[in-house]
Specification:
With about 350 residues, the chain is of the alpha+beta class. It has twelve helices and 13 strands. It binds adenosine-5'-diphosphate and magnesium ion (MG).
Length: about 350
């Protein structure tokens, strides 16, 4: 490997499968064709070593994750992914690291028919930026500001898995079963972007957001943008089998205990990195929405309703309010500093 251009040719210049890429990697800019009648949606995310991931993480996971979090943003808009660009800052050229990174990146790219059409390669502290481009019809885009009073609130998958995985890793607690820990770790490392589900839900959903910072924060953004509030049923928050089992282990429960807070509820409300979708639908659309999610074998839960009164209310089954502590489970406070 003689340098930057060799590296690009070896790892990032691959035959393109998409007819809408008129020029890809290799020129000064990519030339791309947006289908008539659709709009271009663009989103970008950066992963920095020591901030967003542990420096010794498997590069395959990084390649996967860098694209997955971007795909999740397009899913949250109801958009169809098409193209990605990749800005890589590397401390040195390490071909086995790059091969692993590409394995993760291209596995997901192939899965979602995303073409890598360009990027930038520099030397420096490890950092990975992916920009994703996709299409949607303007009238079908899921907007954060579109939640309506009376809407039902849904989430896909289960909540809190990634947050629990992070706590288990950092504490070194090995009390839960190996299989459960592996499951939770995979949920943190390789989140499933809900792209297909989102496309299936087009024209059924009012507002949507993907859960990167936890339900409390992310649904909060949607509520603020829409000028509404929500009541969430704690008992309806979906738990994976592994989460349910691990959270009960005495050492885990005591590690997570903060004053009178419920550790499971704090994790499900405030831990990030699940990359599930949270969306609202008119009650009359509930049956159609659930039919779509079943078709994709996608787990879902109806967790609450949109209210006119601003604010985020969590209630127990008996109607008593639960006040999340939040700060005890700040994702950033739990990560190593840069
Ligand atoms: P320029 O100097 O004109 O900006 P570069 O020399 O940075 O171009 O890159 C050469 C080509 O390789 C460009 O088409 C660019 O998009 C592509 N490229 C550079 N780095 C990457 C990367 N990490 N992934 C994909 N494409 C890349
Ligand atoms: Mg140039």
């Amino acid at each position: 490997m003689r340098g930057e251009f060799d590296l690009i040719d070896t790892f990032f210049k691959r035959p393109l499968q998409r007819g809408d890429v008129l020029l890809g990697v290799g020129d000064d800019a990519a030339m791309l064709r947006v289908p008539p009648g659709q709009e271009l949606l663009v989103s970008i995310d950066t992963l920095v070593a020591g901030v967003h991931f542990f420096p010794d993480v498997d590069p395959r996971t990084l390649g996967y994750r860098a694209l997955a979090v971007n795909l999740s943003d397009l899913a949250a808009m109801g958009a169809e992914p098409a193209w990605a660009t990749l800005a890589l800052t590397l401390p040195a050229i390490d071909t086995s690291w790059l091969a692993r990174f590409c394995e993760g990146f291209y596995t997901l790219a192939r899965d979602y028919n995303v073409a890598l059409v360009g990027g930038n390669t520099t030397r420096g502290p490890l950092s990975i930026t992916v920009q994703i481009h996709g299409f949607a019809r303007a009238d079908l885009v899921f907007r954060r500001a579109a939640a309506k009073v009376g809407d039902l609130i849904y989430v896909t998958g289960a909540l809190g898995d990634a947050g629990l995985a992070l706590h288990l890793m950092q504490s070194g607690i090995a009390e839960c079963s190996e299989a459960h820990r592996a499951y939770l770790r995979a949920r943190l490392d390789c989140p499933t972007p809900r792209v297909r589900e989102a496309l299936g839900l087009r024209a059924l959903v009012h507002a949507a957001i993907d859960l990167s910072d936890g339900l409390y924060a992310d649904l909060g953004h949607m509520l603020a943008a829409s000028g509404v509030g929500a009541t969430i049923q704690l008992a309806e928050l979906p738990q994976s089998e592994a989460f349910q089992a691990c959270i009960q282990a005495p050492s885990v429960a005591s590690m997570l205990k903060v004053e009178d807070a419920l550790p499971w509820a704090e994790l499900m409300l405030s831990a990030g990195d699940d990359y599930e979708l949270c969306f609202t639908v008119a009650p009359g659309r509930a049956a159609a929405v659930e039919a779509v999610l079943k078709e994709f074998y996608c787990r879902y839960a109806r967790i609450g309703v949109i209210d006119a009164e601003p604010g985020f209310r969590c209630v127990h089954e008996d109607g008593a309010l639960y006040h999340p502590h939040r700060s005890g489970y700040d994702h950033f406070s739990a990560m190593p500093s840069a």
